[in-house]
């Protein structure tokens, strides 16, 4: 029910805000709900706020799980 | 000797002046606006005659006429403005019958207080669009409404054209087995305009695709006179246009999501706002329905034209009493692409 | 788009579909509820149902904050716009929800109400700053995902002294809704709603973590798999649920590990606790009064509570008698079981909330999937 998308942090600004990028679309958002965000990190964005940092390793692990399920079934 | 110069009329103050009620009152102020702003920009033999109408030669062939009202907001957006949009829009509506557009008429409703500088920009843009398209604006009208009763400017354009013999292009002619072609990427205009909307604004390189398509259409109908239908997917997007044609023709359609060209930034912008590119407006694209035997030739001709470089075969017309437009998703499942219910609104859920 | 496109890959989808088909026992049915409206939308939009074996049946749950927002609460917002000349800032989702007297926020706008769509609650506060002479009310809706941003904005309003700003708070809680379903007569007593497992919400869980669901798994012996938002996430979660059910396990598993941890976002949770407190009970459209299921603004921030500021009293408004949204939200009925579905009640003319929101079960089914039930008859063929 909550439209949220993973976006890349392109630039950090003062005041807990950042410019994020999704394939060339840029928007200024708030980082007030997450700590220790760095340029290049991906965050989950919802209504103008980052809710969490995306764990890149876990993302890869999940994709590998998908592929494994497919392989097992074959 | 009096210091009054004979025949002196103070020139319009384009830089700082604003539209006021006298500009629509039919008197000298209005005549000056028409002459120094509109006629000067559109500059052609008909307007030079300064009549209320244009006397035109009878064209050979079946006559096509179309009219379009333009209320776009904001008036100026990345890649265009209400001026060129109004020229392209009506040229395209005429061209979608296969016709060659010949002449345009333009009506302006101006809001009291509208800056003349902005009006000049819009009119210059219209003049440029008309010149580039080779379709003159031969007559027009202007009225002024009180402040608060308009949105800056509303423009209505009407176009007249002729259809070459042997063409029967109409939305009710799609038949099962026909192929569906789109001339390029979808959603560009709508997302470019949305990128400037307060609160929703986002940074992007996207520009509107507003363009006059009659040149592309002329090439298409010459090479493939068997074309069944043409339509430009403006408000409501590709999905609405396909549903309209399906409904008019009493048929169904199946399309392939992976085959529909969409710019990456359009996809990304739609993700941000929870929108579906299929329902986003286009102003420089067309949909063509063509018999299967002729689709390859059609694509070849379209891709050779600057406005059809990314033309793509996206699906086919089917037998379906319910007139559903069905889509095979990139994911592998199927869904219907339904009519739009009201405006597509950005969502958080 | 990174972390989006890879999770929509059609080839991987076929692979997981094959795995589900191989492991699902054809002799039984797996009734899986996807709680979250976003999952309902994803399943419909990508045609995930086409890739599932008949043994797996998806049941749509009430996780759609627009769908469960009572008519009476929208009426309050409309009245503020029309009677109090307040600027009402709202997410796009709420604009077309039909309320009393044939009105909606969009129709109120047509009648002169100053209703403005915003992308973020921060924009509502900006409107208040730009119009200090007007009252500005933000219509806050949403589950736990959307609540922390509202909390932040209320704190910011306090910090900047935005005395013309207030929030009409309708934030609701996921665990309470799940409990409500599991405690419903159809599940508990009558056994008419079979539920074998839950797909847990994606983004709610980034905030609240996976821990709150452990209670359900244990108390009700139902497995829960938290799934990401993309169709591959949903399919993987379905596979994981099928495996749990086959094994007789009832655990909380997390498929959305790239964004969800057991603890969740503690900073966000602390902010929410600071600004909001639990309501004893709150009306949910379709579910009736649900205890401890919603939030209201604390006394300390009471000046920003629109209910206090304007002395608002909510009237409970009954749904149209023919509307089956309640049963549909609880998963007891399917949209096609509703007599007015697709006839009187359509996305153009929604009678109930399930049809208004694009992720409501009825809207999703109507817009994306209703062709499945209708046999395709070639034009001209004998009936």
Q: Any overview of this molecule?
A:
The complex is a heterotrimer of chains A (74), B (349) and C (383). Chain A is an alpha+beta fold and 74 residues long. Chain A has one helix spanning 56-73, and strands at residues 5-12, 17-22, 25-30, 42-46, 49-53. Chain A contains one helix and five strands. In chain B, helix 1 runs parallel beside helix 4, helix 3 (82-95) packs parallel to helix 4 (116-133) and helix 6 (214-223) runs antiparallel to helix 9. Chain C has 383 residues and is an alpha/beta fold. Helices cover 37% and strands 16% of the residues of chain C. In chain C, strand 11 and strand 12 form a beta hairpin. The longest helix of chain C has 17 residues, at 231-247. Chains in contact: A-B, A-C, B-C. At the A-C interface, strand 1, strand 4, strand 5 and helix 1 of A face helix 1, helix 5, helix 6, helix 9 and helix 11 of C.
Helix vs. strand class of chain C: alpha/beta
The CATH architecture term of the largest domain in chain B is: Alpha-Beta Complex
Strand pairing plus helix content of chain B: what structural class? alpha+beta
Oligomer: heterotrimer
In the residues of chain B, how many domains can be counted?
Answer: 2
CATH topology of the largest domain in chain C: Rossmann fold
- Count of discrete alpha- or pi-helical segments spanning 4 or more residues of chain B: 9
Kindly state the mean pLDDT of chain C as a whole number?
91
Residues in helix, % of chain C = 25-40%
Low-confidence stretches of chain C: 375-383
- Biggest interface pair, residues each? A-C, 39 and 58 residues
What is the approximate shape of chain C? globular
Order of helices and strands of chain B: HHEEEHEHEEEHHEHEHEHEEE
CATH class membership of the largest domain in chain C: Alpha Beta
Spatial order of strands in the largest sheet of chain B = 8-10-7-11-9-12-13
Main β-sheet, spatial strand arrangement of chain C? 2-1-7-8-9
Mean pLDDT of chain B: 93
Do you know the CATH topology of the largest domain in chain B? Phosphoribosyl-aminoimidazole Synthetase, Chain A, domain 2
**Total individual domains of chain C:** 3
Radius of gyration of chain B using CA atoms only: 22 Å
